[in-house]
Amino acid sequence: MTPSDDRGAERRAGPKRPALARETLLAIIGALALVLCAWAIPWLKFVLTIALAKGIAVLGILLLLRAGQVSFGHSMFLAVGAYTVAFVAPGTPEVLLLLPLAALLAAALGLVIGLFVVRYRDIFFGMLNLALSMVIYSLLEKMYAVTHGTDGIRVAGLTFAGQRLEREVQEWAMFGIALTLAVGFGLLVRAYLGSPMGRALAGIKTRETRLEFMGLSARLVLLFAYVLSALMGGVGGALVAMTSRHVTPQLAYWTSSGELVFIAILGGAGSALGPFLGATAFELVRVYAAAAVADAWQMILGGVLLVVILFAPGGVWGILSSKLKGRGA
Amino acid sequence: MPSTIIEWFSDNGLLFGLALLDGLAYAALVFMVAVGLNLVFGVLRIVNVAHGSLFAIGAYTAASIGIFFASLGLPMWAGYVALVLSALLVGAVLGPLIEKLLLRRIYGHEDVLQLLVTFALFMILEDVQKLIWGVQPIMQDAPMKFLGTVDIPFGDDFIPFTAYQLFVLPGVAVATLAALAWFLRRTLTGRVIVAVTTDKEAATAMGIDAAKIMLLTFSFGAGLAALGGALASPTTSLVPGVGASTIVLSFAVVATAGLGQIEGAALTSLMIGLGRSIAVYFAPEFEVVVPYIIMVAVLLVRPQGLFGVLETRRV
Amino acid sequence: MTEAVTRRAAMLGAAATSGALLFAGGNARAQAKPTELRVGITTFLSGPASVFGVPARQAAELLFEEINKAGGIGGIPVRAFFVDEAPGTDHLVGEYRRLVQNEGCQIILASISSGSCLACTPLSDEMKKTTLLWDCGTQRIFEEGPHPWAFRTQGYGTPEVLAPLLYLLKHKPDFRTLAVINQDYAWGRDSWELWKAGMDAMKPGVRVVAEMFPRFGATDYSTEVTRLLAARPDVILSTSWGGDLTTLIRQSTERRLFERSLFVMPIAEASLPTLGRTMPAGHIIGARGDHWNNHPAPKDPARLKRLVDSYRAKYNEYPIYPVHHMAQAISAMQAAYAKALAAKGAGGWPNDLELANAFRGLTFDTPTSSITLREDGQGLEDQIVGLSSFNDKYPFAVPKDMILFPAAMVSAPVGQKSTDWLKTLKPDFVAQVPAPMAG
Q1: Which of A4, A5, A117, A128 has the highest number of chain B CBs within 10 A, making it the mutation to test binding with B?
Q2: A120: which chain B residues are within 8 Å (Cβ-Cβ)?
């Protein structure tokens, strides 16, 4: 028995009441801190919106991690969401229509790819996702006439419930939408992980055959999680496109997928809050590292990741929750 | 339909032959990188993302040593010594260093953590390379120039190929494959490695020092990556980012081949090499996606990879 | 800079200015003279394109040092804030905001990559911040819509492709077949589209025997080289650059492809110092401008020599074109500030709008020539194309039989799309090509 199995056992039992309260408290504090930060430091509003968007996509990674599977190609759904916005926005610039459309298309692709990849586990699962994301990356890059290759596409001006907004107001609107969606998807994931379908995911990680003896199809359980994660990837990608207003194939490159997994671990896989903690930490480290040493930011990010894995494998969430626990007791 | 195929071949048969020659050399380069990765994965169960960095560092080191040799006025064949030296250096110094300082601490943790440790290492090494070797392309082509070219007849015409590409690359790859096969099947250490690959728990129970085997395998894999880089260095210009694009292809090879299977890696590399060069001639738009299409196709038919063994499902 | 300090400072700042910050977009208020002139510079500091990005940063550091030694701009020192383009556009547009809103940069020098420029330019409109496109080449920027706050201080794709094409038509008018091998990304595709439009208009009937777009950053071209050897085209066009181009040239020379076909390489200049004597002689090479080390008649020879010598002394390598493009952007910035400050009178400092207005129609000197910014923001930079050759002065190839193409001759007129304009060219356009320069 390895230590990780013990942690898994605790997780399978689901968060206990005080843990749940801690999570809620942290989420409220976190949301308030984000709003305050975005108000106090205007340029950070943009960075934080991107962080929230990526956090939503990382929630999807979290689901798969519960099943012990690592998708090294998840950014393809991000790219699908982003390119949906870029392609459709000139005709239909309405944010409230674009978001569900991006989610729907990403989920549909997730279903098609999911039907294929849920038959595989571990490295095969990871590498197949990687291969398919590289195919999508290559297509976005190769179909120059349609996608403008690596130059990418500028996202046309957007409307919010029919209103065309000033830049400053629009940035706030995007931030608000991202925060609302983050809270919504966070709650959804928490409820899902507590449901039988969600708990069955942990079964795939430990002893898949046992799951099947109970009459549950492991593939179906995983497929459901995969489609949900693709959907959230699409929403995250749409938000990234609407915020940065420019999409490029790099969104689908394998290092971007690596980043998402990175964020999941950095934040901590123990809570639905983890992805947002991780994404915020990731984006902040990246911008400050880039500001401090523009040509060695990769080294700093890599170093941070190493330190987290070696010394705080629970991620930011793990650190925060143990601190809170210590104080509460 | 058959008649059009025959027609096509009579029109393009010669070109097809050229594509095969090119594909062979490319396959050799792919194999050299992928086989080390596959070996490491077989024993350590870690997808080593930093393998690409080791490839790049091997290439840079070989070029640096080669340039140093040239500045000493050594003859051109010394370039080959530089290639080997670089592989030995990375295998004997960098490999053990990474294994002992980093990987050793996370054995037994979740797979994703192990993978991310190597991802972090990859990010760090990307910048380290840049700090050491700078950003301007570095090149050292003495080993390629030393052997000159060979003219291959092509209808009334002829096509010059470098002897390095035609003989050295495939030669080294075949020799590596044969040596590895012999080592793994015929020597004690090799058999122990195979035993750990197949069932680590049983092997440890029988008294095998798994830690030592892991150190050995990782260093060996690192050396192979560096050798792959060193072999590629005479024909290519070294720039930042060369590791990232190399490694992603090796991933595809490993999954297609079957875990830890060196023959599988060889066959997959061959399919990818030939598939790619045929694509360059006849459907250049698909060149980039060829490896992935091959991988998806193989895994559809054989979910455990070409040479993989189905693992028994635990209850 | 630590996060804690920034946060505290930001909180204080927020308390002081309260809600005013929220709507602080483009300001038309009177501008107090700052204590330093902050310049944001985006460039590649990692990845394959850092072969251009790092020399450009070195150039900026060198020149800023020089400027500050001489008293700065308008009496205040200049300070550069560098940003890496490599992490991608979503990161870059965030960094652009940081440069403007947090670092207080008064002017941004944006981007090597066309993708970065296409992302930053609309942002310059929105944030009303003067942005100099210091290196990117895409013709789409000013042809797909106006960008009143952006100015490109060098040439762009159209002249950089048309000049070598005209040189080829003059140098080897009888070629019948051509192959292209470009990097598979926007520039590789765009430059081929421009070339093809111009070639089909001025010399119809050329057969294209191979169109290859190998992966960006490819390390092996042996298959492509074999195919080119077998196809035996009269001319091979490649607008590749960096490591890709040096690899292509080395693998091609080794296999004697340069003996079978005439190469046209519009961006070869940056790779020549790396290639040294490996570069074959007698092929058409370009430099994305007129800034060759052996320019026979530079406008200000002393200044060119000073730039080359001081760059070499500091970094132990010859300057390549990104160095010159960075120097041009900085020259333009100096000239525009001088103009704006003169208009403002003693003690004044231009606001964002006044600064942008100073750039429109600005003419500034470069070591080799002078560049005028057109009314659409596009700079007119002359192009020099020549044949690769060797002399005793340089340990690498330099052009001979150079032809100087005046920028206005090879640029699409304001308001016209490049491909449409190129299609209107007639075969007799070649007759307007000037004679080779003396020297």
Answers
A1: A128
A2: 299, 303
